[in-house]
Amino acid sequence: MANPSQFPPPLHSRCFMRRTFANRAFAIFYSFAIFALLYRHVIHLLHSPNIMLSLFILLADLLSFLWLASQAFRMYPTYRRHFVDHLEQYVKESDYPGLDVFICTADPYKEPPMGVVNTALSVMAYDYPTEKLSVYVSDDGGSKLTLFAFMAWFKVAVSVTDSDGSEMYRSRCISRVSADTQNK
Q: What sign does the CA torsion over 87, 88, 92, 94 have?
């Protein structure tokens, strides 16, 4: 028998929801009702001379079949708890894959530039190796407003440090932006 301490801790665990019985009871009751309607529709279609009415009934039956097919996911509802702390025991940080994040924007009035800038800042704040994280912003509309927002953000990023005085976040942002601007 293997010693449990030999195995690394799990990365996730599956927790079962308490509403499983209620979901199953509802699905079974509703399924019986749909099967009764399907039986009635088949009997009615065999004796109905009206083609249009028959097509509408078939459409309703198709939608009820789609509902029945979707119930498989609700029969045993679960949710997962993730343990990111245990990842270090499985993979070294140097073995993480490269992560490219593309942020697409087109219209500065429908997608406010500050929202796009906040998205880019949030991605760059990931706890991920800096050399393996790349953020690309694609402004399909070529908006000067979005460009101005990123230029203003860059000026602020150069002058601001974290509250605890460390410059890790600032250096991460500046190195990423300066590398991207030098490549152009």
A: positive
